[in-house]
Amino acid sequence: MSFQATVQNVSKSLNKNKVLSSVSCSFEKDVIYGLLGRNGAGKTTLLNMISGKSLPDEGSIKISGQNPFNHEHSQKQICFIRESQNFKPTLSIRAIIKMMPAFYPNWNQHKATELLELFELPLTKKVSQLSKGMESALGITVGIASRAPLTIFDEPYIGMDAHARDEFYKELLDDYTEHPRTIILSTHLIDEVSDLFQEVYFMKKGEIALHETIDNLQQRAFLIHGPKDAIESLYPKGHVLDKSNFMGDYSLTLYVHEDSLDDFSIPTTCKKHKLSLQQLMVYLTNHKEENSLWVK
Ligand SMILES: Nc1ncnc2c1ncn2[C@@H]1O[C@H](COP(=O)(O)OP(=O)(O)OP(=O)(O)O)[C@@H](O)[C@H]1O
Q: Whose C-alpha lies nearest to ligand 1, atom 18?
């Protein structure tokens, strides 16, 4: 059976707070997803349930047709690397690496050794003796070397410097290219990783605000400058995320309607620039609902 993770109408409360409301999404085989949203949007809560660590109050989660909660076969298909506390502090790196093949049938020892060397992680050190960045690098090593059909990284690089993060993106992409699998990456460093994503889910206040392919987003989100009349003629073509006028230079941030895409062009007096994923996310999760692109 081909791999697929599906979430259907999932709701969840924690300590009587509704954290997720009727969330539906699906993660297809061999696609890299970004799961984005502001602090407290519900990303970790959703990922915990997808990885079978907790149960929804309502709705269903299926990993290739099975409920992953307490289901050994599903658990072996999923590697979930969290922001911290992935490993017992008293264990050495050597002991952790040794036990991984029991959890992940696709575990690749050669890749693990290569990454431990790259991140300069000494086998003899215990997790409690690692710096924050080293502990994150260990999580990343395990996540990549697991080659699990569903690999989830939830803010995995706390404490890692820019150089080490670059290594992570490169290694993840290289290994994915040779051994494709489904990857979900939740992060706040959006522009750093946006080249990795093929599709993104944006979450806002416990709901999915938008799901798009990166290709589609790039064709739909623009910042456009030009004279007043030309700019105003574009309003009906999309959702106006922002507009401003600075000393006669009018600008418009537009998310083009799906049905306007085929014939969307701008007047010759205007200039358009692509909107980065980070910029789009700011508009999308804006608390001012009248501007927010919250397609419900
Ligand atoms: N154990 C808990 N008890 C009560 N509320 C909780 C608990 N854990 C999380 N929450 C609440 O659930 C909401 C969603 O939290 P969650 O950690 O899923 O968000 P997130 O999108 O991952 O945030 P961040 O980007 O900051 O990691 C938040 O409002 C948070 O306060």
A: 42
